[in-house]
């Protein structure tokens, strides 16, 4: 070392300092103001692969190369001016190829403040760069894999901030990537599953272990899908919980993926299958019971999936024949079937069967089971994989669907019969009404009035049939409950039979309530039938009414109500059944004995009327259902349009009006035409839609009386055509149904007269429409 740098080191043990510098693993050098190397340690000489003597005294440009020097020249100049410099670049190493280095240029300041040179420190960061690049590539691969995966994936912090979501997440939710932390995932949960998902999620997170959730979630297109999500905790370097990573997938697709995974595992591990077959994955998280058998049926290994029909200590089965294990040993009737299936599977033929587990005191379970042969390397069967899937709920759902379809078909049939019967009753009621009004013989008039009353009772029966078929619309109006129940006594007597005592105690105060009379009758009938089923050995059915006042109730507005109670002395229900009794499709009856819709309909009738329904029950102490209906402010009105005919002067219309009558039933059409002509109207008629439109174009009538349901063109189609030609055309629909919503859609503002009806009711309805009232 020479020059001022050497002077700076005078007074020190130069050899000791040189030894320390050489011991450093970091390349180190000192250059003077002439940019020549005054010192370098052994690490720098080895890095440059030159002897130290070939470096000392040489210009830095000669040692590192002119290109590298030109890049670093401004940094060297700045360091000689007193500014510490830092530089990172890739360097063409003589033997290692391209390496990544970080270089520091440290100005050396003499005691007099002048810069005597620069200390150069070199750090080889090639391995760090490689590691960083590997990490970036790994992250990129992860993102590519995650974004191409057909499952929803996410990574969250403890504060639920989402650090990553994949493309499937965005596709399912319809959320933009920059909005992933602006939406609430819980908003996508089906309302019926929300509470359970929240409870299970909180419990799973608190456990600090992986946990699984199953629920319905709303996809971006509005359709709910069942997803199974698995969330696993993420821990920091010190073992602290920092968040969760999760995946959610459609259950059906997950099953297919599981089978594909098993196939791939079998293919990729064929060389070790014989030695590792017993260790083949048995997932405790799957819902199926999975058992690995020897070819003679001995249980070798199994999972621990819990099931109501399975023995509590599953491991007790290991070492026993499958049919002798605790679970199946309780059902000896299946021994030969299971033994035979094992023998067939041992020959290499898969076997699938349905097993029904039935015994006293236990719920019947339906299982889909399979016996799958597992081949060894030589192709022979080494093991048998037994899988059992509980399909009890699926069976019940299928049966409920069949029952619902039967009810729907029965409802359609009933509605069709009621519609045709209403057409017949229209002619009967109309004819009898004309006889009553024209009969001069008092006895004949009395006979006709009696027949007319019977025909109108038949009309009320068809209204009940239409309500049963779900065709009748809900018509909430002021209704007296007591006479309605009293009129049901004969029907209840026939439904309940002689073995059940009936006690009906009705409040004598005539309190009108808001309810649909027909739907209320059906609700009472439904509850009476349920009570009968709960008392197979006989008992007491009680029906009572009483006025109540409600002040502070979560379901009811403050005010006056009528409480209608239907109670029995039957078997009663436990609390968990009472809690779900109003749920649609929930039933405690055997498969095929009920749809689970009766009580939900009763609850719906009460709620739609502005009230509610509640159940009180205990096992062995009977059941009482209390229906609450709000008190009506208005008085009970007439049930049909005959009252409108009492005062014709209230809606007077000129008798010269023209009316077009359209009905495919000739008898009904004839009655309507005769009645209108008798009241002085000019009447034209048509038997179908085409004829009606032709007549309408020929001479536009003041009013069209139009049957709603007709073959060919329906009344709705005819009304739309007429309104297209004359938007303000007055139309009066007549129908055996009460399709109010459909009529409003077909012809807004059109009136409706339900069949059957009397002549005066028809005339009153016509006058009302023509007057614009």
From TrEMBL:
Entries under PROSITE patterns matching the protein: HIS_KIN, PAC, PAS, RESPONSE_REGULATORY
Domain PAS per the UniProt entry, residue ranges: 138-197, 275-349
Organism: Sphingomonas kaistensis
Response regulatory domain residues: 658-770
Keywords from the named record: Phosphoprotein
Name of protein: histidine kinase
Catalytic activity: ATP + protein L-histidine = ADP + protein N-phospho-L-histidine
Enzyme Commission number(s) of this protein: 2.7.13.3
Lineage: Bacteria, Pseudomonadati, Pseudomonadota, Alphaproteobacteria, Sphingomonadales
């Amino acid at each position: 070392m020479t020059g001022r740098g050497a002077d700076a080191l005078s007074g020190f043990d130069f050899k000791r300092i040189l030894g320390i510098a050489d011991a450093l693993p970091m390349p180190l050098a000192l250059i003077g103001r002439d940019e020549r190397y005054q010192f370098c340690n052994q690490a720098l000489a080895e890095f440059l692969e030159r002897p130290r003597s070939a470096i000392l005294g040489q210009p830095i440009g000669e040692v590192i190369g002119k290109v590298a020097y030109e890049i670093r020249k401004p940094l060297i100049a700045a360091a000689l001016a007193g500014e510490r410099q830092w530089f990172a670049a890739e360097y063409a190493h003589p033997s290692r190829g391209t390496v990544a280095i970080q270089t520091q240029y440290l100005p050396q300041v003499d005691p007099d403040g002048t810069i005597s040179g620069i200390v150069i420190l070199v750090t080889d960061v090639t391995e760090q760069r490689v590691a960083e690049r590997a990490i970036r590539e790994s992250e990129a691969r992860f993102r590519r894999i995650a974004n191409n995966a057909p499952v929803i994936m996410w990574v969250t912090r403890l504060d639920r901030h989402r650090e990553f979501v994949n493309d499937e997440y965005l596709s399912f939710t319809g959320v933009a990537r920059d909005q992933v932390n602006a939406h609430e995932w819980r908003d996508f949960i089906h309302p019926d599953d929300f509470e359970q998902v929240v409870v299970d999620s909180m419990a799973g997170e608190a456990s600090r272990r992986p946990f699984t959730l199953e629920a319905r979630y709303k996809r971006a297109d509005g359709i709910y899908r069942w997803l199974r999500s698995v969330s696993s905790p993420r821990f920091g370097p010190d073992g602290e919980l920092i968040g969760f990573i999760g995946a959610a997938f459609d259950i059906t697709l997950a099953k297919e993926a599981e089978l594909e995974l098993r196939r791939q595992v079998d293919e990729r591990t064929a060389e070790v299958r014989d030695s590792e077959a017993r260790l083949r994955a048995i997932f405790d998280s799957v819902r199926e019971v999975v058992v690995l058998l020897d070819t003679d049926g001995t249980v070798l290994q199994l999972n621990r999936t819990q099931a109501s029909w399975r023995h509590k200590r599953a491991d007790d089965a290991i070492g026993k024949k499958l049919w002798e294990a605790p679970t199946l040993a309780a059902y000896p009737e299946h021994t030969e079937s299971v033994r035979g299936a094992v023998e067939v599977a041992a020959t290499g033929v898969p076997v699938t069967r349905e097993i029904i587990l039935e015994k006293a005191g236990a719920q019947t379970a339906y299982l889909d089971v399979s016996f799958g042969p597992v081949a060894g390397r030589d192709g022979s069967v080494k093991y048998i994989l037994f899988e059992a899937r509980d399909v009890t709920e699926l069976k019940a759902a299928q049966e409920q669907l069949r029952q619902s379809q039967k009810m729907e078909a029965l409802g359609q049939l009933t509605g069709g019969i009621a519609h045709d019967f209403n057409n017949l009753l229209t002619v009967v009621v109309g004819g009898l009404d004309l006889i009553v009004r024209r009969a001069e013989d008092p006895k004949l008039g009395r006979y006709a009035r009696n027949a007319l009353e019977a025909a109108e009772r038949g009309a009320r029966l068809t209204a009940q049939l239409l309500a049963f078929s779900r065709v009748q619309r809900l018509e909430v109006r002021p209704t007296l409950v007591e006479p309605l129940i009293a009129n049901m006594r004969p029907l209840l007597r026939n439904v309940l039979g002689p073995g059940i005592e009936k006690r009906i105690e009705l409040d004598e105060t005539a309190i009108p309530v808001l309810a649909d009379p027909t739907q209320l009758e059906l609700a009472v009938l439904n509850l009476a039938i349920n009570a009968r089923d709960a008392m197979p050995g006989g008992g007491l059915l009680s029906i009572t009414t009483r006025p109540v006042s409600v002040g502070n109730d979560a379901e009811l507005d403050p005010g006056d109500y009528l409480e209608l109670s239907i109670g029995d002395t039957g078997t009663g229900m436990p609390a968990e059944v009472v809690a779900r009794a109003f749920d649609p499709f929930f039933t405690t009856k055997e498969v095929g004995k009920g749809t689970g819709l009766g009580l939900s309909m009763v609850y719906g009738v009460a709620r739609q009327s502005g009230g509610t329904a509640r159940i009180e029950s205990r096992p062995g102490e009977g059941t009482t259902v209390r229906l609450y209906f709000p008190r009506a402010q208005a008085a009970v009105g007439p049930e049909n349009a005959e009252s409108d005919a009492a005062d014709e002067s209230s809606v007077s219309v000129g008798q010269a009006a023209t009316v077009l009558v359209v009905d495919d039933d000739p008898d009904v059409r004839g009655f309507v035409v005769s009645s209108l002509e008798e009241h002085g109207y000019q009447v034209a008629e048509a038997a179908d839609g085409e004829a009606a439109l032709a007549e309408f174009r020929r001479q536009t009538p003041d009013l069209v009386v139009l049957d709603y349901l007709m073959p060919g063109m329906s009344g709705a189609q005819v009304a739309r055509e007429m309104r297209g030609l004359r938007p303000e055309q007055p139309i009066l629909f007549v129908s055996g149904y009460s399709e109010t919503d459909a009529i409003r859609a077909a012809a807004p503002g059109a009136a409706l007269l339900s069949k059957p009806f009397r002549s005066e009711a028809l005339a009153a309805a016509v006058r009302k429409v023509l007057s614009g009232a």
